[in-house]
Amino acid sequence: MTPHPNMVWFQGVVENRNDPLELGRVKIRCLGYHTSDKSSLPTDDLPWATPVQPITSAAMNGIGTTPIGPVEGTWVVGFFRDGERFQSPVYFGTLAGIPQTTANPVQELMVCYSIVTFYPQFKSIGFPVTFTFCPCISRVPSTLKTMLPPTC
């Protein structure tokens, strides 16, 4: 594969991490390349950005590590592998940020739920998969814990 002669670097903010293929891809609004006007360029129209993974991951067939990835609002750095066409972004790092709001206990609960839902292999190796496994569970009010499915 010949690299594109005009590889373009970017910084951007993650707007969507719900990758239908579950590959760790995200939709990134790239500073200076995509307009900040979401009515003229909706998030759905942004291209999916592929994560770079470490060499300890085969990045296929469930071998190695799984990209958990950044969340909406995370600033990332990457490049467009198709150069100035800006349609094939790749991201490889996140930039430090300061939260503008306090944590939402319901969102924390959903992160814990995601860990148990998307990593069922913990059960197969005898790992006690309960929400006490999640470090944030102690900060979630007990009234919200009742929202969890009984199988978790």
Overall average pLDDT: 73
**How much is the radius of gyration in Å?**
18 Å
Net shape: globular
CATH class of the largest domain: Mainly Beta
Please tell me about this protein's structure.
The protein is of the alpha+beta class and 152 residues long. It has two domains: 8-95, Beta Barrel (OB fold (Dihydrolipoamide Acetyltransferase, E2P)); 105-145. Helices cover 14% and strands 20% of the residues. It is built from three helices and five strands. Strands 1-2-3-5-4 form a five-stranded mixed β-barrel. A hairpin with an 8-residue loop joins β4 and β5 (89-95). The N and C termini lie far apart (45 Å).
